[in-house]
TrEMBL record:
InterPro entries: Cro/C1-type_HTH, Lambda_DNA-bd_dom_sf, TransReg_Diox_bact_type
One protein family per Pfam: HTH_3
SMART domains linked: HTH_XRE (SM00530)
Species for this entry: Bradyrhizobium valentinum
Protein name: HTH cro/C1-type domain-containing protein
Keywords for the protein's UniProt record, in alphabetical order: DNA-binding
GO CC field: cytosol
A Gene Ontology molecular function term of the record: DNA binding
Stretches the record annotates as Disordered: 139-167
PANTHER family tied to this protein: HTH-TYPE TRANSCRIPTIONAL REGULATOR (PTHR46797), METHYLPHOSPHONATE SYNTHASE (PTHR46797:SF1)
Organism superkingdom: Bacteria
Positions of the HTH cro/C1-type domain: 17-71
CDD domains per record: HTH_XRE
Length: 167
C-alpha cells in the first residue's frame, strides 16, 4: 500500500487546528490526551507534516468546539490571502498579540503599536547587535565605569564597548 504524502490542504487544516486550539487555551498535550495521541503527533498535525484521518479530525473538531467544516476554508468564498493569514495567526504568540491589540481602543495607541512592531520587524537582523551593545553599556555602568549617563568620567578607564548611537 502506497503511503500518501501530506499536501498544502493538510498544512492549512493543521494551521486552523492550531489557531482554534490556542484561541481556546488548550495545550498540545491536553488536545493530544483528549484525542488519544501524543503531543508530538499533534505537533505534526499542526505543521501539516502528517495527514489526519476522518475519525480523528472529527474528534479534534469536537474537542475544539467547532464543526469539521470550520477546519477547512470555503473555496472561493474567502479571500485568496486568507490562507497566509491563517498561517500567520498560527504563529506562536500572534493570536495573543492580536487580542491585546484589539483590547486597545485609542486609535493613536493602535497606530503606535503597529509602528513599533513594524520598526522592530524591519530592524530584526540588527537588533541582536544593538542588544549586545546595550548589554555592554549596562554592564560597564554596573561596574562603576561612567557617571549617570554611563559615559566615562574624568580619570576613569575607558570601556572597550562599542558606542551606542541613536538612529
Amino acid at each position: 500500500m502506497a503511503t500518501r504524502k501530506s499536501d498544502p490542504l493538510d498544512a492549512m487544516v493543521g494551521a486552523r487546528i492550531r489557531m482554534f486550539r490556542v484561541n481556546r487555551g488548550i495545550s498540545q498535550a491536553m488536545l493530544a490526551e483528549r484525542i488519544g495521541v501524543t503531543f508530538q503527533q499533534v505537533q505534526k498535525y499542526e505543521r501539516g507534516a502528517d495527514r489526519i484521518g476522518a475519525g480523528r479530525l472529527s474528534r479534534i473538531a469536537s474537542v475544539l468546539g467547532v464543526s469539521v467544516g470550520e477546519l477547512f476554508e470555503a473555496s472561493g468564498a474567502e479571500s485568496p490571502g486568507l490562507n497566509s493569514l491563517v498561517r500567520l495567526l498560527a504563529e506562536p504568540d500572534a493570536l495573543r498579540a492580536l487580542k491585546a491589540y484589539a483590547r486597545t481602543t485609542d486609535p493613536r495607541v493602535r497606530l503606535s503599536i503597529a509602528k513599533l512592531v513594524q520598526s522592530i520587524a524591519d530592524r530584526a537582523p540588527a537588533a541582536k547587535a544593538t542588544v549586545a551593545r546595550l548589554d555592554t553599556f549596562d554592564r560597564d555602568k554596573r561596574r562603576g565605569f561612567g557617571g549617570e549617563d554611563g559615559l566615562p568620567q574624568e580619570g576613569e578607564p575607558q570601556s572597550h564597548a562599542a558606542p551606542v548611537c541613536p538612529r
